Amino acid sequence: MSYIPRLQCPESNNKYYNKKSTGGYSTCIQGNTSKSCYTSSLNVLPNCVGYALGRFNEIGNYKIFKYAISGNAEDWYSNAQKLGLKVGDTPKLGAIICWRKGKVENGSDGAGHVAIVEKINPNGSIVTSESGWSSSKLFWTTNRTKGSNGNWGQSTTYTFQGFIYNPATENINSETKDYLSRGDSGEKVKLLQQKLNDFGWYDLTLDGSFGAGTERALKDAQKKLKLTVDGIYGPETKTALEEAIKDLDNLTTIIVDKKERKIKAKNIDNKLYIDLQDIYYKLNLAEVSYNKTKKIFQIETK
To answer: What is the number of domains present in the chain?
Structure first.
């Protein structure tokens, strides 16, 4: 399988984040309804266990809750082992990271916290996706380092317990991942930057560093290609982007802002005509549409 990290809130009505009683897959309790972020379309959020268990099963694409770990977050590390799941101290993609707060199986001194490992960076830091019962947000991501205290960036009121490994990602690691996202670097990123420049005239520097500029360009391209706008260069986005620029050698070269650009041109009576709408679209200056009733172009600046 290919692993695509979740770096954005689940889409509405995603069954992994809705209770079985309302048509979803989740065996978790309802999220904190007292929070303004609560929505019935993701009704086990906000809550760390509701999110983590949903994501753990979503990664495997089981379409059921194959793994239903019970108890408060701080009870999961031991309860997962009773279910036969492997655990350890080393982060792996798709794993659940667990912290206790106070004594295990004693909810009166805190319920602990759990999150999902979405990325493992070359420097050993990780990116987690998570939710929380007391949070004003349904979802967020966190960059975490192990730190001298080994607590992976959680406050000192919590104690790191370990990682619960996801069977669905057992043979996947950060080196064999099938996606690019912010923070990555190398020749694959440089190739992506060139493809984005060819597609949308973004003028990215081909430095092989996936930073904020590359992410903005990728999200804009995903929007134009009518894909999920998540800033992740996975298989679906790769296929769509390559399809969009596959005829690049057959395009017409024009000069825009003293720079050579390639664009489709229509041949009418042996003369080439450039579509104004395409130029505005690629330059990301405006949305252009043709009003058939008034027979005029309508331009909405961004």
So the answer is: 3
pLDDT in tens, 84-94: 999 999 999 99
DSSP string, 33-88: TTSTT--GGGTT-S-HHHHHHHHHHHHHT-SS-S----S-GGGHHHHHHHTT--EE
CA distances from 39 to 28, 44, 88 (A): 15, 9, 34
Residue whose entry in the numeric block shows the structure tokens 């043709």: 290
Q: Which amino acid is at 301?
A: T
List the CATH number of the domain containing 239.
Answer: 1.10.101.10
| pLDDT for the residue 73 | 96
Question: Within 10 A of 66 (CB to CB), how many other CB atoms are there?
Answer: 12
Are 88 and 145 members of one domain?
A: yes
Write the CB contacts of 237 (distance below 8 Å, at least 6 apart in sequence): 218, 221, 222, 225, 227
Percent above pLDDT 90 for the chain: 62
Is residue 149 in some structural domain? yes
Report yes or no on 97 lying in a domain: yes
Residue 229 domain boundaries: 187-244
